[in-house]
Structure formats: structure tokens, C-alpha cells
Amino acid sequence: MAVLELTSVERALDRVAEGRTPDAAEATSLLDTPVDRLPALLEAASALRDRGRGRRITFSAKVFIPLTTLCRDYCGYCTFRKDPGEPGAFTMTPDQVLALAHAGARLGAKEALFSLGDKPEALFPEHRAVLRSLGHRTTLGYLREISARVLDETGLLPHANPGLMTERDLASLREVNVSMGIMLESTSERLLARGAAHDRAPDKVPHRRLKTIARAGTLGIPFTTGILIGSARPTQSGWTRSSPSAICTSATGISRRSSFRTSAPRRPSRCAAGPSPARWISSGPSRWPGSCWVRP
Ligand code: SF4
Fold first, then answer.
1. DSSP letter at 57?
2. Tell me, what's the pLDDT at 255?
3. Is 120 in the pocket of ligand 1 (CB under 6 A)?
4. Quick one: which atom of ligand 1 is closest to the CA of 74?
5. Nearest CA to 30 among 21, 121, 146?
6. What percent of the chain has pLDDT over 70?
């Protein structure tokens, strides 16, 4: 009698269909789901979502507060960061932050989302001077003060995404933030290589970011994280193999949201060849992940 052997993909799908949670290895195997089994995968994912969260979608109306566009990192896809003196380079004053937060509150926002570059004071004397004039030595110190003022004076709930944080930073910021976050982006060390997306981005070393997520977990801080799609060749960089389980194990019990963000190249790099991820996502599942944006 012929014995049919189930593939790991089918085993994982069966497990989900039976209402059991796939383990990290099984979940990872689903990344290899063949195109003709995608409907089954989507059905299983929908059933899992319905069992866990139901079909109610919630959202948090927020006002986006770009506290500073200066950053010591130079991620190849970033359109946010600026050097001092570049058009669009600024650090918001407390008055500007509070005016924006009040305007958001008047429009019904509930959350103040602080987004900012990572430790610009480490690179730019101009920023150190700005911080001194505001009574601070670090951007995180300024962020803490302004988060407290937004909370006290506008009633908005601060959520900060300031990059890498020590346990001390997290403990200090949690007093005035309802939640915090950091994009993991990728677990691939190869993106740090010369000419790759995280060349000249010391804060994007994957294990340092995972440490921040783990520290937030230890402190029980509601935390958001996410993966950047398109910064590496998925099947070769390692992020599709390790990121989901890395995020799950690091953020167990604290993850408030995981996001998947697409990227596009800003400066010429090895990332620049091939269609952008937004294009291959919109071109349908048959294009993903076989056609890829990065040439390693
Ligand atoms: S860390 Fe990278 S993505 Fe974030 S602001 Fe700086 S350059 Fe941009």
C-alpha cells in the first residue's frame, strides 16, 4: 500500500485547521507554501485570526509627531532622515510639539506617535547644541520630557519609536508612554555589508534590536515591532527564516502590533536592481518571493 508523506507545509496547515497553534518551525515552513496552496493558507490564517481575535477591527487614531528628522544612521531606503542643513532637517521645539498634539486632540486623535531618528547627538554637534538649549544631553531625555508634557497637557497617549534603548531608557520612558516600539526590520547581518541597505547604520545590527525587544518584554512594556519587506532577498538573507520566530519569542506577551513595511531604495546600492517590493506585492502572489528586489 502506498503511503503518502505529508509535506511540512501540509502538516502545518493541518495543525492550524485542527485548531492547534503551529510551532515556530512549522510556521516558518509556511513561507514555502506553493502558489496553488495559497488559498488554503489564507483560509487557515483567517480561521486562526477568528478564533484568536474575532472579526472586529480596532484602530487608534493618532497624530504623527516627527520629533527630529536627524539620525546618525544612513539606511539605504530611508526618506525620513536628514543631515543638519539639508532641506527638511529639523528638531521640533516643545511649543511646536504641543501645538501639533493639541491640534490632533481637537480632531479626535487619541495617541501621540513620536517618530525620530536614532541618537543624532552622537554624530552632529549642531544637534548637541539644540539639545543643550532645551536643557538636555540626549534626544531620549528630551523625548521623555516632551512625552510627559503631551500626556499632562493634551491627554493624548504617547507612543514612542526612538530606536535602540537600554533597560534604563525603557524604564524611564515607560512612565510617560503607554507603549513603545522598534522595527526589527530584518535579522540578516548581511544587510550591514558594504553597499547593502544597513551599511552605515550601527543601530540596525539585528541582535541589538532584538535585545531592545527582549528588554521591553522583561519590563512588560506593550511593544510594537515589524519587518521591512524588500531590504533583502528573502530566501537568501535569512530574514524570512528567522524573523517570525525571533519576533514571537522576543515579544511574547507584549506585542501590541507587528507591521510589515515595504521599502524602496533611496541611494544607489546593491538594493537598487529589480522591481520594488510594492510592485511585486501588487502584481500578485505568483510573483512573490521568486522575483525579488535585491541583488546580493
Ligand atoms: S534609523 Fe534608518 S530608517 Fe530610522 S530614521 Fe535613521 S536612517 Fe531612517
1. -
2. 55
3. no
4. 7
5. 21
6. 76
Average the pLDDT over 274-292 and give the result. Answer: 39
SS3 for 155?
A: coil
In Å, how far are 186, 192, 230, 234, 245 from 197, measured between CA atoms? 11, 7, 10, 14, 22
Pocket lining: 73 vs ligand 1, CB cutoff 6 Å: yes
Count the neighbouring beta carbons within 10 Å of the beta carbon of residue 52: 8
Give dist(CA 12, CA 142) in Å, integer.
Answer: 47
- Residue-wise pLDDT for 233-244, tens only, equals 444 444 444 444
Task: Check: CB of residue 224 under 8 Å from CB of residue 258.
Answer: yes
Which atom of ligand 1 is found nearest the CA of 117?
5
Poorest-pLDDT segment among 29-43, 62-76, 85-99, 257-271: 257-271
Contacts for 192-199: CB closer than 8 Å, 24+ residues apart: 195/269, 195/270, 196/76, 196/232, 196/269, 196/270, 196/271, 197/75, 197/76, 197/77, 197/231, 197/232, 197/263, 197/265, 197/269, 197/271, 197/294, 198/73, 198/75, 198/76, 198/231, 199/74, 199/76, 199/269
78 CB within 6 A, ligand 1: yes
pLDDT at 11 (0 to 100): 85
Is the per-residue pLDDT at 295 higher than 60? no
3-state secondary structure of 244: helix
Which ligand 1 atom is at minimum distance from the Cα of 203?
1
